[in-house]
Specification:
The protein has 413 residues and is α/β, with parallel strands linked by helices. The chain is 41% helix and 18% strand. It contains 13 helices and 14 strands. This is ROK family transcriptional regulator.
Length: 413
């Protein structure tokens, strides 16, 4: 009986999760709409929604009729997630920054902080800084610690999902083997989910941005380094040990420059932001940053735009092989360099048309991300909410006064 009882409880949790996810996707829905969206019977929906309302996670509100052709009469009662029921934290570690945000269950960001930080230098100091920033955003949003469901975290390196540890990476030597999830859980007193930053960028754009509703997506983050996140069949794909999508260290030029990973001619040495800035410095003198590259290109500087387009061609050459193998519908370009816009997109597209199989190239669109440098932190928030089955935190007596609203997009898987 114990085994059967456990199976029934697991099934109920799964079904609760289906209802919660359907409400996240739709924003609000009637019980009949939930039954159609989840495939569950109306009786099951009625039972589950009653439980969720009792738990304080779902609220009722009257709405318009479901369809334009519906008969006149009283509008159906709509169900929606109660934003006050709890919150989630998101943390994005870049190589040179830490960004932390807190959002309610309707995906409204209540507070968000960003700080420049040399994350590569010291994992312990970066984790301490993130924990301190988390406390600051919770205080700003008026959120008590027991009203937080959990925390999603993005790190610019491979993450072994089996252990929650950072995989071996010569570009993050101080993080290799670090149980990042456990370390942050200790500092925050919360459940923590950790993933690669580009993977969370893919989730962020799929949830809130350019990839909404698309099942097969390659998200490319172009910044200090280059990485990609994969959404295949509507699910994140990480690979056996978390290194799927690490295109920055794919061989691009056998005779190219030495890469910080120890290899020669990696894509990052030809198309990463530091490589572009170094070439521009030869013409302008002085030290240039990624921000300078984007600014010069925006101002119409021909040299900057040319170098970014060349970088796009290099990235597109590597992506062509991925397109042949994975046959995606969409490539989303994100990260700081995506701020340059069309020169980058045009360069990628040119190489795809030249090097990918014609049928694969014709099937894929290349678009710029719409979330900018917030894609990863929004993906970190979604990492928690998408994994949540609907159980409220220990205390559901939330009194989170809304702070400045930075995004109001509903979560869509």
């Amino acid at each position: 009986m114990g085994g059967a009882g456990g199976a029934l409880r697991s099934l109920r949790e799964l079904n609760r999760g289906l209802v919660v996810d359907a409400l996240r996707r739709r924003g609000a829905a009637s019980r009949a709409e939930l039954a159609r969206a989840t495939g569950l019977s109306r009786a099951t929906i009625s039972t589950l929604t009653s439980e969720l309302m009792k738990d304080g996670l779902v609220v009722e509100r009257e709405g318009e009729r479901e369809t334009e052709g519906a008969r006149a009469g009283r509008p159906p009662v709509l169900l929606a997630l109660d934003p006050r029921a709890g919150t989630v934290l998101g943390i994005d570690f870049g190589h040179r920054h830490v960004r932390v945000a807190v959002a309610d269950l309707s995906s409204r960001v209540l507070a968000e902080h960003h700080a420049e930080f040399d994350v590569d230098r010291s994992a312990a100091k970066a984790l301490d800084a993130a924990a301190e920033m988390a406390g600051a955003v919770l205080a700003e949003a008026g959120v008590p610690a027991d009203g937080v469901f959990g925390c999603g975290v993005g790190i610019p390196g491979p993450i072994d999902q089996r252990t929650g540890t950072v995989g071996s990476s010569p570009i993050l030597p101080g993080w290799t083997g670090l149980p990042a999830a456990a370390e942050l859980a200790t500092r925050l007193g919360l459940d923590v989910d950790v993933d690669n930053d580009a993977t969370l960028g893919a989730l962020g754009e799929a949830t809130h941005g350019a990839a909404r509703g698309v099942q097969d997506v390659i998200y490319v983050k172009l910044a200090t380094g280059i990485g990609s996140g994969l959404l295949l069949g509507g699910r994140l794909h990480r690979g056996a040990t978390g290194i799927a999508g690490e295109i920055g260290h794919v061989l691009y030029d056998p005779n190219g420059k030495l890469c910080r990973c120890g290899s020669r001619g990696c894509l990052e040495t030809a198309a990463g932001a530091p490589a572009i800035a170094a070439l521009l410095q030869e013409a302008y003198g002085g030290e240039l940053t990624t921000t300078d590259v984007v600014r010069l290109a925006d101002e119409g500087d021909v040299g900057a735009a040319r170098l970014v387009r060349d970088a796009g061609r290099a990235v597109g050459r590597v992506l062509a092989d991925m397109v042949n193998v994975l046959n995606p519908e969409l490539i989303v370009l994100g990260g700081e360099l995506a701020g340059v816009g069309e020169p980058l997109r045009e360069g990628v597209t040119e190489s795809l048309e030249r090097y990918a199989l014609p049928a694969a190239a014709a099937a894929v669109r290349v678009e710029l991300g719409v979330l900018g440098d917030r894609a990863e932190v929004l993906g970190a928030l979604s990492l928690v909410t998408h994994g949540h089955t609907g159980r409220p935190p220990a205390s559901t007596a939330m009194h989170a006064a809304p702070a400045q609203v930075l995004t109001t997009s509903p979560i869509i898987r």
